[in-house]
């Protein structure tokens, strides 16, 4: 996504002027450095009011967005939890962290890369983690990367241990009175162990930590990771009433596209393993979920989004009430998206927009909004039924989650990490993303054809099998590399060696090319093997540049045929 040489000088000069202007605002508040509240949801697609979703009821996140900068086209680097979170927090792509599954810790397996909270901690921040920030277990060394990244051990809500426990999380008993682990599981919270749920506990703990930082001169970095809307949909049952089932609709493209390569299909095994889904007796791998259950599934997902929105509202209201809103940057995002029946798919595990696109919102007091008048709240809590009239500053050009680390660093008044060299395994601190700070003082006037996101997803075979969604490293045979530009999504499924981590760019298993102006849902694959073969010459460039050149060639041919 770096600019071409012919534009480099002009863009660098413009960028320096813009960054200087932003720096004046940032430095002006450095009597004490800005605090940072970093909020991450799990499996949250852009099903939010501020992203144009008319179904979603998300007034608190929308209120945050109205005082922030909203990136409409932000993409994860891999649509599964551990690889995406590790990539975002280190600002390194999965091919650099060498994490495509859940079986390794990057500091041991790839390189001792500095994380965003670790960098801030080294610069004097008190860093704290609540809920799910790093993926727990092996990918974060069973410690959430403590003490590298955090000043104190990470907090995990005690009630999370009941999340998948059949005895405690079941909503409905079968006719024999047995308990089962269901996908759809709205509950009466008062009947749950401890009378609570994980995200309720995480919000309480985050508020407690905010209160503990009010009377200190040490800036804080508080990362709060909500477990929802990740499955199971174990949420307070009252949120379902926000979405009457008779008002729910199916995905606009619920069928598997005819020209979708088999290797690209995600058979959503994590849903199939749930008891209530098993009772539907759905054929593997393409058998559709019955329409009535699809409607209920979509209802539960949206209800879970509103549940998360309420927790965000509670957290932001506390930030406001404690007098911290005017001195705290707020960043809100997700680790990846989630398919809701589009292309006949559910869950994440693909390279489509619905799986890779995420919300990305930055609130910077004094930059994205003017100081509040005396006595007026910045983030009053809003009931889910309210729909306040709001406007948003939106950036439409493509950005990536690897951009978060350098952007947050700069907005905090620190030096953003330098760009990584092509081979960076020995570099402890660098970024494979871009510093987006220039966009905060820059009016987006047109599309940036240079802006491209780069995502990838591994597969164990060319056809769907039970481990297609989450293959272990040793089982990966194919890697799907995907470029997303303003106009196109271009994906190549290439041979991959899991022992050497090498991709064979000449071993093309399948390809996808979608023209988004005519096909925003990415249902009409216009990839041509014959056109692609013309481009498969030896090029002394890396894979990203090779695919960019191929995309330019392929789309030029398509455009000429359309205008002929």
Automatic annotation (TrEMBL):
Protein's recorded name: Iduronate 2-sulfatase
Catalyzed reactions: Hydrolysis of the 2-sulfate groups of the L-iduronate 2-sulfate units of dermatan sulfate, heparan sulfate and heparin
Domain of life: Eukaryota
Keyword Transferase: no
CDD domains: iduronate-2-sulfatase
E.C. no: 3.1.6.13
GO cellular component, one term: lysosomal lumen
GO molecular-function terms, A-Z: iduronate-2-sulfatase activity; metal ion binding
Subunit-structure text: Monomer. The 58-kDa mature form is composed of two chains resulting from proteolitic processing, the 42-kDa chain and the 14-kDa chain that remain stably associated and form the 58-kDa intermediate form which is enzymatically active.
UniProt family annotation: Belongs to the sulfatase family.
């Amino acid at each position: 996504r770096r600019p071409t040489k012919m534009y480099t000088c002009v863009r660098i000069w413009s960028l320096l002027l813009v960054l200087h202007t932003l720096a004046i605002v940032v430095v002006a508040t450095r009597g004490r450095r800005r605090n940072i509240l970093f909020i991450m949801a799990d499996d949250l697609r852009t099903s939010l009011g501020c992203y144009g979703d008319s179904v979603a009821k998300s007034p608190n996140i929308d209120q945050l967005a109205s005082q922030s900068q909203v990136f409409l086209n932000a993409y994860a680097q891999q649509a599964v939890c551990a690889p995406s979170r590790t990539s975002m927090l280190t600002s390194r792509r999965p091919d650099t962290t060498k994490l495509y599954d859940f079986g390794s810790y990057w500091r041991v397996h790839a390189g001792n890369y500095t994380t965003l909270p670790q960098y801030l901690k080294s610069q004097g921040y008190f860093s704290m983690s609540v809920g799910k920030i790093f993926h727990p277990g092996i990918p974060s060394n069973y410690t959430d990367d403590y003490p590298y990244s955090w000043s104190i051990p990470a907090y995990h809500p005690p009630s999370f241990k009941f999340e998948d426990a059949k005895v405690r999380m079941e909503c409905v008993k079968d006719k024999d009175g047995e308990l089962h682990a269901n996908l759809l599981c709205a509950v009466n919270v008062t009947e749950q162990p401890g009378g609570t749920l994980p995200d309720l506990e995480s919000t309480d703990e985050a508020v407690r930590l905010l209160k503990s930082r009010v009377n200190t001169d040490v800036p804080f970095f508080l990362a709060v990771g909500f477990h929802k809307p990740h499955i199971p949909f174990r949420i307070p049952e009252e949120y379902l009433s926000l979405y009457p089932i008779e008002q729910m609709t199916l995905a606009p493209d619920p069928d598997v596209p005819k020209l979708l390569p088999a290797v690209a299909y995600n058979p959503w095994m994590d849903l199939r393993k749930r008891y209530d889904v098993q009772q539907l007796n759905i054929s593997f791998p393409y058998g559709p979920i019955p329409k009535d259950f699809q409607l209920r599934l979509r209802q539960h997902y949206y209800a879970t989004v509103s549940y998360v929105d309420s927790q965000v509202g509670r957290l932001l209201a506390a930030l406001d009430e404690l007098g911290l809103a005017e001195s705290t940057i707020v960043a809100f995002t997700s680790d990846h998206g989630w398919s809701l029946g589009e292309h006949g798919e559910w869950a994440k595990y693909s390279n489509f927009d619905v799986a890779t696109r995420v919300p990305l919102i930055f609130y910077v007091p004094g930059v994205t909004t003017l100081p509040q008048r005396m006595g007026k709240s910045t983030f009053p809590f809003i009931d889910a039924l309210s729909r306040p009239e709001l406007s948003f500053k939106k950036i439409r050009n493509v950005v990536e989650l690897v951009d978060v680390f350098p952007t947050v660093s700069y907005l905090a008044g620190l030096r953003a990490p330098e760009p990584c060299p092509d081979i960076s395994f020995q570099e402890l601190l660098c970024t494979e993303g871009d510093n987006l700070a220039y966009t905060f003082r820059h009016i987006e006037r047109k599309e940036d054809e240079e802006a491209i996101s780069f995502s990838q997803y591994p597969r164990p075979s060319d056809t769907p099998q039970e481990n297609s969604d989450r293959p272990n490293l040793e089982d990966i045979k194919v890697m799907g590399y995907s470029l997303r530009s303003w106009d196109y999504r271009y994906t190549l499924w290439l041979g991959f060696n899991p022992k050497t981590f090498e991709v064979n760019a000449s071993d093309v298993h399948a390809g996808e090319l979608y023209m988004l102006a005519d096909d925003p849902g990415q249902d009409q694959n216009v990839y041509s093997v014959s056109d692609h073969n013309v481009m498969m010459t030896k090029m002394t460039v890396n894979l990203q540049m090779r695919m960019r050149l191929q995309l330019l060639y392929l789309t030029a041919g398509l455009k000429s045929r359309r205008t002929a």
